[in-house]
Design goal:
Blueprint: H1 3-6, H2 13-31, H3 37-44, H4 48-54, H5 58-70, H6 73-80, H7 88-116, H8 132-147, H9 158-173, H10 185-194
GO molecular function: DNA-binding transcription factor activity; transcription cis-regulatory region binding
Keywords: DNA-binding, Transcription, Transcription regulation
Protein name: TetR/AcrR family transcriptional regulator
């Protein structure tokens, strides 16, 4: 290893921790908890000792990585950025695409951890900042904001519509729940807005 490679580029401590977390997350998805600090250092382009100057130990780095992977803030920001000037259907397709990206990333992480150790529960997965009930409420509120003033065109209250949209997106994206045939964002939105029943046929009344 060259001197330039072994000497990490100077970063502020928080930036260094963030860079290490960014390098660790893809490796955890691939190797689970078996990922080594040597692999992480190589991916981050730093010496192994740099990891332990930024984190007390490997477990601390993994906890920070899990927290970053589960952090809802980027997804909520992306939902807030959905263009409100386009029609409702287009807004919903954009919102579902954002949710599917998050779900897919979390599913891959959970699958990697389960493959490495079926009994393992990622640190921070219980109640707290990433409490599922709090996350569900935050995403429901964000989806309701996407619907906005078009709520009057729905047959159900906006909160119920947002709840069903989130559940349909979750089940239509999870590889085991959807039988390995995930629904596209257009299919999910179309199912909710249009239903799956055939259009009723009308018979012309010829009686006098």
């Amino acid at each position: 290893m060259t001197a330039a490679r072994s000497r990490a580029r100077r970063l502020a401590p928080e930036d260094r921790r963030r860079a290490l977390v960014d390098a660790t997350l893809p490796l955890v998805r691939e190797h689970g908890l078996a990922v080594s600090t040597r692999q992480i250092a190589e991916a981050a382009g730093v010496a192994e000792g740099t990891i332990f100057r930024a984190f007390p130990d490997k477990d601390a780095l993994l906890r920070a990585t899990f927290a970053a992977a589960l952090d809802p803030a980027p997804t909520l920001r992306a939902l807030a950025d959905v263009d409100r000037s386009v029609p409702l259907r287009a807004r919903l397709v954009a919102a579902v695409t954002v949710l599917q990206q998050r779900f897919e990333e979390v599913f891959r992480l959970v699958d990697a951890l389960h493959a490495a150790n079926p009994e393992h529960c990622p640190p921070g997965s219980g109640p707290g900042p990433h409490d599922p009930r709090a996350l569900n409420a935050a995403f429901a509120d964000a989806l309701a904001e996407v619907v906005g003033p078009d709520g009057g065109a729905l047959r159900v209250p906006v909160p119920e519509f947002a709840r069903v949209l989130r559940l349909l997106t979750l089940s239509g994206t999870h590889p085991r729940l959807c039988d390995g045939q995930p629904l596209t964002a257009d299919e999910i939105v179309g199912t909710l807005l249009d239903g799956l029943a055939a259009a009723p046929t009308t018979t012309e009344d010829t009686s006098c």
